[in-house]
Amino acid sequence: MTPESIRFNFSNFKLTWLQPVEITNPTNTGIWLRLIQFDVLLKGSTIGSGFLNESVVIQSLNKTILKVPCTIGVLDILTAIPDFIDQFSKRTVTFDLKGNINAEGFTIGVESSANLTIPNLSFLK
């Protein structure tokens, strides 16, 4: 799913966005989700994280979309510059997301990708 609310904060040197995560409950009872956490990877290296600590009930035989706040620090961006430059010319960077969703009594693995469109920074010239 496409990231939302992409922002680069110059005061604390972080790139942030909301990553929609679709969760399906295939059971006949509601499931309590307690925590979503995952690493943001670029070409296999962890450069950021996504974290949502919120109790949510996914109704039976239903799906919902939760928006997980994600953060990448500028120092992490700088260490990944070669990988960014490789994708930057296309104005899109593809991140892998790997982590867990903690529900009542069990854990679900998360593996997905996010395509982050690079904003036009021509105003900085």
TrEMBL record:
Superkingdom assignment: Bacteria
Limits of the Late embryogenesis abundant protein LEA-2 subgroup domain: 21-106
Name under which the protein is recorded: LEA type 2 family protein
Organism: Flectobacillus rivi
